[in-house]
Write a structure and sequence with these properties.
Length: about 260
């Protein structure tokens, strides 16, 4: 799921935060309710891999994910090989609220990615603290924005460029089908802290975040309806399905976001 591959589960370890498989409910009139409508998967040629999510923007057209999902890591100032995720496999799209076995269903549509914005620190040097990306999304055939389709500002978290390292966050992601045959998102609400082996990275301990959850949003202060919280980073790496890290959004992330928001 990242530059540091996820390994065997250590879910039985003491003190691990609980991960919940997200259920989809029926509202009056048999309209399906999506608990995390802004979160979905990246897709190309019928395949899906990393997690991505809508972030509040003026035009409602921006999605955040991990850089390694859409661009190769550079080394020594030079671009890397073709990424194991993303661009090499075809035209990118985003499917919010994705679920279901096999090819799955896309109840809120499949949205074409217009452009990808990644930091040079990632594409030239592979710096983990720059493992974030912002994607500009095209409107649908009726001119509707992605953010409007997933619930508008009541659902999409605003970006936070100056967050501290100790926050309560809700993290939502889509593990690979091997561990998640019904392709349902998992979520965990827990406390962040500095990563032990790299203090510049955020860290959480939550079981169940297997390969596929790269790009999962880390949302601080999420409070349910009309309190979407603040997006402070996206899941980048981890040595097991329990240990996960993220690059904290900063002024570099803000610059990428602003470029993506222009469309």
């Amino acid at each position: 799921m990242s530059a540091v591959a996820k390994g065997a589960s250590a879910a039985a370890a003491a003190g691990i935060a609980v991960v919940f498989a997200v259920a989809f409910m029926e509202a009056p009139g048999d309209r399906q309710v999506h608990p995390f409508p802004t979160v979905g998967v990246l897709m190309a040629n019928g395949e899906h891999w990393c997690t991505a999510s809508v972030v509040d923007s003026p035009k409602g057209n921006v999605v955040a994910t991990a850089a390694h999902c859409v661009a190769p890591a550079g080394e020594g100032g030079r671009p890397g090989e073709v990424a194991h995720d993303g661009l090499a496999i075809g035209e990118l799209a985003f499917a919010p609220a994705f679920s279901g076995e096999g090819a799955g269903t896309q109840p809120l549509g499949r949205w074409k990615v217009r452009s990808i914005h990644v930091d040079d620190r990632w594409t030239k040097w592979g710096e983990e603290t720059a493992d974030f990306a912002f994607l500009s999304i095209e409107p649908d055939a009726d001119g509707r924005s992605l953010q409007e389709a997933v619930g508008g500002r009541a659902e999409a978290p605003a970006p936070d460029w100056t967050s501290g390292y100790e926050r309560e966050v809700t993290v939502i992601g889509y593990p690979e089908s091997e561990h998640n045959p019904h392709n349902k998102p998992v979520s965990c609400t827990t406390q962040t802290r500095h990563a032990d082996d790299d203090p510049d990275m955020l860290y959480i301990s939550c079981a169940g975040f297997w390969t596929g959850t790269s790009g999962s949003p880390w949302i601080a202060d999420r409070g349910g309806s009309d309190r979407p919280g603040q997006l402070i980073g996206v899941l980048s790496g981890g040595n097991t399905d329990v240990d996960s890290t993220a690059a904290l959004f900063d002024e570099h992330a803000k610059a990428l976001y602003e470029r993506a928001a222009l469309g």
